[in-house]
Each structure stands twice: as structure tokens, then as C-alpha cells.
Amino acid sequence: MHLFSRTLIVLALLAATGACRAGDELIIVSPHWEGVRYEFGRAFAEYYRQQTGREIEVRWRDLGGTSSIEKALNASFEATPDSAQVDLMFGGGVDPFISQKAKGHLFAYKLPPDLLAQIPADIGGFPIVDKDYMFYGAALSSFGILQNNKVLKLTGLPAVNTWEDLCQPQLYSWVSSCDPRKSGAFHMIYEIILQAYGWEKGWRIIYQMSGNVAAFLDNSSAPTKEVSLGNAAYSPTLDSYGLTQQSFLGKDNISLTIPKDLSVINPDGIAILKGAPNLKAAELFVNFVMSPQGQSLWMKPFGSKNGPVKFNIARMGILPSMYDANDETGMIPVNPFKQNYSIPYKPELGSLRWNIVNDLIGQTIIDVHPQLRSCWRAILQLPAANREPFIRQFSQPFVSEEQLSSLASLWRKDRAQARTLAEGWMKQAVARYRSIEQQARQARQP
Fold first, then answer.
1. For the segment 164-177, what is each residue's pLDDT rounded down to a tens digit?
2. Which of 6, 117, 217, 314 is such that its CA lies 20 to 30 A from the CA of 378?
């Protein structure tokens, strides 16, 4: 990262945390939405008062999505290695926590034995309890496709059940998505596709699906709102966003589909950061979030006993015992601990190539989306029987999986060279899309 840019990030983080503190407080960086922040901040303040007899202010630092948070933390620890002047990182999947642990930015904290005994060590290949107690899974997420059933009826568009279904030509401009560089949830969706289908077919699906995307939005909840408003018919989404919209509008109008055998259950992490200025409060916050009292905020509807008071969050919790007692809510339709997870998902691999996959999607899809969409449209205007050679060229990954593995260390150690390489991908992408579009248009000539 350029020195000037890194300095700005560090200054912004320090300015956000504040140099002068009065009383007890807790500083948390998080990509979580307003509802999660409000409910956990409010409930923890009450819990803290009960535990200590003191008041506390929970200060949430909005640094953007998960990738932006990681950049800010990395820059801050590089500038002041002993502390980022932040207590906790909360939310964003599990990959960023694996990455921050590898960088030495997390603080080991072991939960009280009676609470730890209630929590499974892992689920579907993902750690819920890090073996070194550096981080925990605070909630569980799955990923699916939200669709507006009213729009489907009015337009005659098909219902979809898999990621591959989003590539269908008739879906052109009816799909909404989010930039994975700004959303850990959407990054996970693309990584799941790559691991579920394999590298070659995974990119084929990602490129064709991206051709059908009307626009890549900057906020992870925005695509689901587009579907709810009828501006889009489909969106990949985090399950909680889909369940929230479904609860508002009804299952007949909005439906969430989890692709069978093509999704995963992913823990959403929490960790104390190295050099946390308010360590004891941070430990109590982790205890609270992982306890039945904290887990109720994810799973119960507002107004219920021990549930949220203002926002429905609709997330799967990490305590198996709570699913047996969840009959009153109806908020969580499945017990994730009784599901079969057929994808051999590799979280370490996903974490290792996080930034490279983001750059590949960013440079060859999102930043050149007008050229990609124009090319895809030209292909779709050909007779169906004549499209495959053009689709094959259009869908080829710009880097092989073997090449990508060898580039992982470069992306960690030399961002300047990595940026140069990524900019080269963008130039290749523009040239490819323009060439294919020209060929497709020529093929339409009598």
C-alpha cells in the first residue's frame, strides 16, 4: 500500500477511536448492519452493568466492509505494532479472522469452561472455536438466492435453484449483486462457487452470471432491497438478509433458496485484537455474545423474552441446545447442526487467496462491467445454437488455479507489483470483451 494512503487509513482509524476516553468503553470494528449494532450494544450495556455495577459505552467504528476493515487494521498494526487502539473485530465471516491470526493481530482468550463446553468445535469444516482460542464463530451464515415471485409471474422469468441457474440468458439485467471487495458476504458467495464447481466451471458461472447483473452495488444488503422493490428479480445473498425481507413481505412474494449441495454454513467471527485498550470489557463482550443471552438476539424476534427490542436479526446461533427451544420464534427454519454439508470447503484456501480473488473479480468484471455486459449482450443476440464458442472464450479464467496459488505470497508481500499485475488483467479483460463482441456482431451479419 502506498505510504500516503496507509497513513490516511491509520489516521482515520485513530481519529475514529479517539485519543481521550472517559469512563468505561468498548471500541469495535464491524461490518454488521445497524440492527446488530443497536441490539448487541444495548444488551451488552445492560449485561456489563449487571456484571460490574458500572456503565459502559459501546463505540462501533464503521470502516466499510470486511476488506476495508482488514486494510485499516493491517495499516494500523504496521504503524503501531503493539496496538491498533481497537478492542474487538466482530463479523465478516471466518476468513478475515484466519488472516488476522496469521498476521499476529489477535489476542488469545479462552471462554469460561462451562460456556466453552456448550459450543461445537466446528461445523461443515469451518472452525467455531479456534484451536488457539484466537477467535470464535459468533453466529452462523448460509448463502442463497433471493427471488421476487411477483416479478417472476409478471415477466414469465423462471424460478432458480442453483448458482448456475443465474447464468440463463433470459435473466439478462434481472440480477443484482454486490462488489465482493466491499462485502465479505458476497466474497464468500463467489468463493463458494469456485470451490463447489471447481476453478474452471466456477469462473464460467461467475462471468456469465455477471453478464446478467444490472449493476454491482456497494452495500451487501442493497441487492436484497432491489429484489424486494422489484427492481431486480434475483440476488445472491446472505441468508439473514433474505430471511429479513421474507419476514417483511411474506414467503409468497419473496423467497430464499439455498442451493442444495452448493452452499456452506460459515461462522461469523469475533475476536479480541492484540493490544486491546479495554481488555476486560472486551473479554466480557465475547462472553456475552457467545452465551445463551447473547445468542438469543440472533435467533428470536423482537418483543420476545431475551430477544431484540427493535430489530429482527434472523441469524443462526452457535449453541445446538437453543434450536430445541426455538419453537416459539419460527425465525430460523433449519437446525444447521443437523444438515449434511457436501462441499469439501477449505477455509484456509479461501483465506489465502481472498485478496487475489477480489482483484480478479474487481479488475476483470466489476471495473470493466460496461464492456463485459455489452459483450455478453452481443453473444446472447446470436442464435442459441451459435453461442457456445463465444461463451467459451468469454468465460475463461484469466489465471489458472495453479498460477493463483503461486501468486499468494506476492499479494501478501509486494502490493505494488500485485497492483501492476492486476491492472494487466483489466487491460486483458477489456481487449477480450471487445474482440469477442466484434466477432459476435460479425457472426450476425448475413
1. 999 999 999 999 99
2. 217
